[in-house]
Amino acid sequence: MGYRVVDTDSVEPEPDRPCECRKLTGPAGLEEMALNRFRAEPGEQVPLAYHHHETQEEAFYVLSGTLAVETPDRTYEVDAGGLFAVDPGSPQRAHNPADADGAVELLAIGAPQADDDAVAYDPDAVDDSTDASADHE
């Protein structure tokens, strides 16, 4: 058995991100899933690119504020306490709209942990199979 308590505020934010991203997977000692804490100010997006994952399921649990998730069909609004789930192969771009009243904070959970299965998605292109480096898990 193993247990760990992680002070998420002590985990340094990742550099060169469109919003604050604290990768918690390593500090938590997780091997089968990815776990990140995000804080996005108005106008900031969460992932590095509009993307989908080939094998990874994702879930965004909103801690505070309202998260907008753009998909090919519509944009969802997820309020604090809400959970947005994404199946593999489903394009999405999570963000905090520029006209939001304040920051949005959320936990992003992905399983299985997959550092290289993010694929860029261009809603204006026919072929969305280009590698994204959309890394947000």
UniProtKB/TrEMBL annotation:
A Pfam family matched in the record: Cupin_2
Molecular function terms from GO: metal ion binding
Keywords linked to the UniProt accession: Metal-binding
Keyword Transit peptide: no
Comp. bias (Acidic residues): 114-130
Region called Disordered, residue ranges: 1-23, 114-137
Family annotation (InterPro entries): Cupin_2 (IPR013096), GPI/OXD (IPR051610), RmlC-like_jellyroll (IPR014710), RmlC_Cupin_sf (IPR011051)
Residue ranges occupied by any Cupin type-2 domain in the UniProt entry: 38-102
Segments of skewed composition (Basic and acidic residues): 14-23
Superkingdom, natural source: Archaea
PANTHER family: OXALATE-BINDING PROTEIN, SLL1358 PROTEIN
Protein name: Cupin domain-containing protein
